[in-house]
Amino acid sequence: QLQLAESGGGLVTTGGSLRLSCTISGFTADYYGIGWFRQAPGQEREGVSCISTTDGTTYYADSVKGRFTISRDSAKNTLSLQMDSLKPEDTAVYYCAAGLYYCPGYIGGVYPYNYWGHGTQVTVSS
Question: Which residue positions in the chain have pLDDT lower than 50?
Answer without folding.
Answer: none
